[in-house]
Amino acid sequence: MAGTPGGREGARDIRVWDPLVRLTHWGVALGVLINSALTDPDGALHEQVGYGVLALVVLRLLWCIVGPKPARFTAFPPNPAAALGHLWAMLRGERRVHLSHNPLGALMVYNLWLTLLALSATGIMMGTVTFFGVDWVEELHEAAFGWLMLSVVLHVGGVLFDQWRTGVPLARAMVTGRKRIPVVRSDR
């Protein structure tokens, strides 16, 4: 397709991420950034931002049930066997493009959601009479935060690597909602 936006021959734009998916993605990212870098961990703002992040995660999980097809759980099921197969395919030099998350990316999404839910649960627990000042709850909250930071680094690294490997601008797709993919070599 000569003259297509972005100038790529044989590529097409496909709508994959709707506005709610993009809003929750960037809202969670902003909330995590604010709570990790700008708020006092013992302050009310930290707690309020945490509740905001939790609300966005819950909204996104509900959207995985009732939202459009690309936003649903069925578009990117957690499948460790498929993730290993994808990893081996990458090591063999294959450049398969996925409309939704690739199998490794799908596992990362579920990891991030579970980690954010664990952070939220332990954060809420620390504000209760029963668990206020309990060391293991605070340690679990801090461990979940550390795991989240490692996961974010791996997530961003994975996006950059997959962009380089496939030539598909994934970060752009999370802004525009449209993925620019080759006409061939796509699935789902």
* N-to-C CA distance: 22 Å
In DSSP terms (H or I, runs of 4 or more residues), the helix count works out at 6
Please, what is the average pLDDT? 90
Strand content: 5-15%
General form: elongated
Main sheet properties: 2 strands, antiparallel
pLDDT < 50 runs, ≥5 residues? 1-8
Helix coverage percent = 55-70%
In what order do the strands lie side by side in the largest sheet?
1-3
Quick one: how many beta strands? 4
Structural class per helix/strand content?
mainly alpha
Question: How big is the Rg?
Answer: 19 Å
Helix and strand sequence: EHHHEHHHEE
What does this protein structure show overall?
The structure is a single chain. By secondary structure, the protein is mainly α. It contains six helices and four strands; from the N terminus they run βαααβαααββ. The chain has helices at residues 19-37, 44-66, 80-91, 103-126, 135-166, 170-176, and strands at residues 11-15, 97-98, 178-182, 186-187. Residues 1-8 have low confidence and may be disordered. One of its GO terms (molecular function) is electron transfer activity. Keywords: Cell membrane, Membrane, Transmembrane, Transmembrane helix.
